[in-house]
Structure formats: C-alpha cells, structure tokens
Amino acid sequence: MFFLIGFGWHVAASFAFLVAILSPNWIAFQLTTSSDNTNVQRGIFYVCELLSKTSIYELIQCTSVIDVDPVNIQKETWKYKLGIASAALAISCAGLSLIVLWLSGINFNRRKRDSITQCFLSTICILLFVTFCTSVAIWILLIAEILSIGQKAETSIFRWPMWLAIGASGGFLMGFISMVLSFCRGLSCRRRRRDELYSPENHF
C-alpha cells in the first residue's frame, strides 16, 4: 500500500519536474543598467531577453546556458557557473527520477517480501532522497543567482514553472517518506514471520 502511494507521488512529481525544466520562464525580472533596461526571462537551460512586445506577440532572444561561451557574455543577466550548475543538476535529477521509476517497476512485478525486495526498496529510498535534495538545490541555485546579480528574490518575479518545481520537490519528499514506510513495513512483516517460524508452538 505504502509502495503504491510512494510510486504515485514519484510519478506525479517526475512529470511536474520535467514540465518545469522544459519551460523557459522560471524567473522574469527587469535588469536596470546605466545604458538601458532589459527584461529577462530565466529558465533552466535558456536565458531570454525581451526585445519587443505588442498586443499580439513577443519578440525574445534566447541564449542556451549549456552552449554559450562565457567569454562572449556581454550583459550580466545571469551567472555562468551557477547557471551551468543548475542545468547539470536538472539533467541529473531527471535521470535519477527515471532510474527510480525503472527500479520501482521491477520491484512492483516481483510481488515478494524477501531480502531482495528490501534491497530494492532501500535503493529506491536512497535514490529518492538524492532526487529530492537535487531538485531543491536547483531552485536554490536560481534564487542565489538572482541575488548575486543584485535582484530581490520576491515572489512577484517567480513564474509558474518555479512553483511547479517547488511542488515537485514536495512530491519527491512525499514519495521518499512513503517508500521508507513501505521499507519499514516490509521489515516488520519479515520479523513477524521469523518469530512465528521459530515460536515454541511450531516445535515439537
């Protein structure tokens, strides 16, 4: 029961996290310099500048965080090291999430409460905890990046992908707690069966 609940939490959190990291506008703010004002939209993999806006469309210019050469960065709209770190963590978190889904599927098909199942559950719990910590580190790095370029981390600059990512972190945490409860329940069931097997009533 706890395993299915944890699996459900993890599936929902994984889907929400993937949608969030593929969205380009986690944070939107206006960067004021001595020459001009720049409207910036910051995502995990892209940094976009709003060039013009009408009632029909917006013209934006986006720069890839991964492919950009730090020497060619003209405006300090983001920090290269923090941007690369958050992008790398996002890729790692997505990979860990897929590994947890794969291991959970194998464990679900076993339908046994033996030592191998407990090993699967312990591995899933560890990976889920690492996934949760990684997902939290991503949006903490983005907030740190915003603060490092002189912006205030106000809720008004956070767009829906940021809140979706924070919710995904909560989903990973709930999945981890449910998997730990499933692991503890498996241990108690094995201990109870062992006690029943070696109880005096079962010996002549």
Span between termini: 37 Å
Per DSSP, the total helix count is 4
The profile of the biggest β sheet is: 4 strands, antiparallel
C-alpha Rg, in Å?
23 Å
Write down how many β-strands occur, each being a DSSP E stretch of 2 or more residues.
4
Mean pLDDT: 81
Strand arrangement, major sheet:
1-2-3-4
Q: Which word captures the global form?
A: elongated
Describe this structure in words.
The chain is α+β, with helices and mostly antiparallel strands. The protein has one domain (2-24, 78-197). It contains 4 helices and 4 strands, in the order αββββααα. It has helices spanning 2-21, 80-110, 115-148, 160-197; strands spanning 27-32, 37-42, 46-53, 58-64. Strands 1-2-3-4 form a 4-stranded antiparallel sheet, with no helix packed on it. Strand 1 (27-32) and strand 2 (37-42) form a beta hairpin. Helix 1 (2-21) runs antiparallel to helix 4 and helix 2 (80-110) runs antiparallel to helix 3. The longest helix is centred in the last third of the chain and has 38 residues, at 160-197. It is elongated, with a radius of gyration of 23 Å. The mean pLDDT is 81. The chain crosses the membrane at residues 7-29, 84-108, 120-142, 162-184. Keywords: Membrane, Transmembrane, Transmembrane helix.
